[in-house]
Amino acid sequence: MRVVIAGAGSVGRSVARELLDKKHTVMLIDQSKEALGHERIPGAEWLLSDACELAGLGEAKLEEADVVVAATGDDKTNLVLSLLAKTEFGVPRTVSRVNNPKNEWLFDENWGVDVAVSTPRLMTALVEEAVEVGGLVHLMSFERGQAGLMEFTVHESSALVASRIGEIAFPLDTVLVAIIRNSRAFAPSADDVIEAGDELFFLSSPDQEGALLSLLQAPAT
Q1: How far, in Å, CA of 50 to CA of 32, rounded?
Q2: Could you tell me the residue ranges of all domains in the chain?
Q3: Which CATH class is domain 2-118?
């Protein structure tokens, strides 16, 4: 897989290292000479250019990229790059960094963004996931917000306790994809039984979140 990353700061370089370790081809783009340096990320391609200029993106051969990652520290740049990647170069998938949570609403298909990653939002969700019991925590969105990864920790008073998964009628477009129990993660089967303290991870559409929460929060009778 060929990945082009705009922004060679700490975020962009970290993503590049991870992708290179997984044997992907990576190009880093930055307009700052100080940010670029072959010795920092051995194996990566480098390009000194403005990520919002068509000429530079053409030089980066964006049309050959499988994924473009907009990882600069400027939301406007990340939005423009995502839009250009989609409309001018036909890139199949774009991942864009959201620096200011107030701008998160802009990062959607209208700006060519497939996946928006808001570090402040993600950190907040992870804090909630660590301490929230009996509440549905939204961890991440996929497919331009059409699906979300959500976590729910089962309270001991929940009606779900001792329920067989195959007998639970989850809402439409909702899938229980994983359970963490006693620090061990596993893919649930229809015969598994839910226990108090289980962390349940769902993929669900946003319009089913209310129905899912009502099911999960139903008290034992």
Answers
A1: 9
A2: 2-118, 132-217
A3: alpha beta
> pLDDT digits over 163-197, tens only?
999 999 999 989 999 999 998 999 999 999 999 99
- pLDDT (tens digit per residue) in 109-121: 899 998 888 766 6
The closest alpha carbon to 189, from 166, 171, 169, 167, belongs to: 166
Query: How many residues appear in the chain?
Result: 221
Closest CA to 59 of 68, 47, 76, 41: 47
Q: Tell whether the torsion through CA atoms of 134, 165, 209 and 113 is positive or negative.
A: positive
Structural fold of domain 132-217: Alpha-Beta Plaits (3.30.70)
Q: Give the residue carrying structure tokens 């928006």.
A: 116
Strand-strand pairing, 136-142 and 115-118: unpaired
Helix, strand, or coil here: 122?
helix
Tell me the three state secondary structure of residue 95: strand
Distances (CA, A) of 144 to 16, 84, 108, 206: 23, 17, 6, 11
Q: 110 with 142: CB under 8 angstroms?
A: no
Q: Cα-atom radius of gyration of the chain, to the nearest Å?
A: 21
Measured between alpha carbons, how far is residue 2 from residues 97, 177, 188 in Å? 19, 28, 34
